[in-house]
Specification:
This protein is mainly α and about 180 residues long. About 75% of the residues lie in helices and about 0% in strands. It is built from 8 helices and no strands. It has helices at about 5-15, 20-40, 45-85, 95-100, 105-135, 150-155, 160-165, 165-175. Helix 1 (about 5-15) crosses helix 2 and helix 4 runs antiparallel to helix 5. The radius of gyration is 35 Å and the shape is rod-shaped.
Length: about 180
Amino acid sequence: MTKEQIYNAICDVAEEAGVSPEELVAALEEQNRALFEQKLGGMPAEAAEYIKTARDEKSAARAERRKTEKEGALTEEVKNFRRLFPDVTAEDIPEAVWADMEKGIPLAYAFAYHTLAEGKNGTYADSVNARNTEASPPPVGERADEGELSMEEVEAMSPRAVKNNFSRILRSIGKWKLN
């Protein structure tokens, strides 16, 4: 069975029992501890203590093995990431990528997905901005020509543009038809 199949089976059993998977596992662990204590009850104290110590050492060894396996997997993941993205530093990796990694998505996959998603969003935004720029009139006050300005153009200018185009505005005022 895969880990996913085992997890699904535990979820199914928990649902049928009317408890959460966490509660089911906690109950199983408690039942296992109680059975262990019951078996030790019929043994001499010295033998029971020896078996408890052995069990604790075995449990600690399992925990250490899992920790080592996790660290090894992380090291391999970082090596793979470095191979695929040699110029990216840890500071360049967004928090969303780290969060995805904590959820079990490999670092390289999470970063590639994030980069691709951001790239597509950026590309879309760039294309919209380009279309809008092409369709809009040129910004007032930023033209290269030194032609005359209409009253409407001057009214639409920002204070900075008025300051930058003050001499053009003064030349243009004389041509305006004021009512």
